[in-house]
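Quick check before the chapter quiz. The format below is the same one you will see on the exam, so make sure you can read both the input and the output lines.
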Amino acid sequence: MRAFLLLASLLTVTCVSVSLSAATWYVDASVSESGDGKSWATACQKIQDGVDTASHADTVTVAEGTYAENIAFNGKNIVLRSAAPSDPNVVAETIIDGKRRSSVVTFAGTEDETCVLEGFTIQGGRAEFGGGGAAAPRAARTHATI
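Here is the expected output.
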């Protein structure tokens, strides 16, 4: 019984520590110099830098602006969102523009429902299939929430 209680206590502590470890990263194209992304004052300039810095369960919050880049989630279950995803004015002014290079947003296909993309205007994609967003061809079964 003592071993069971000890195991139950360790599982509780582990679960709590995992949920407390999620971080928020910040991206703002208007900062004069790209920072570590830990605050608005030290925000990354590029969305992909925020995605690359984030770990599973983290959130990347993006300020209004136009971001000329192509985003790859690379299998990370993160939340990538604008500063106010339910405000249509913010969504209209938070733009990811792929500049017709390829799909604007890609997923590895291993992402689950906790991988979220919300609150953006996506434009300028170019691909045979999925110019706005696409999963990697061999893993086209992503479960990301868009």
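If your answer matched, good. The beta strands are 24-27, 59-62, 65-68, 71-72, 79-82, 94-97, 105-107, 116-118, 121-123, 133-135.
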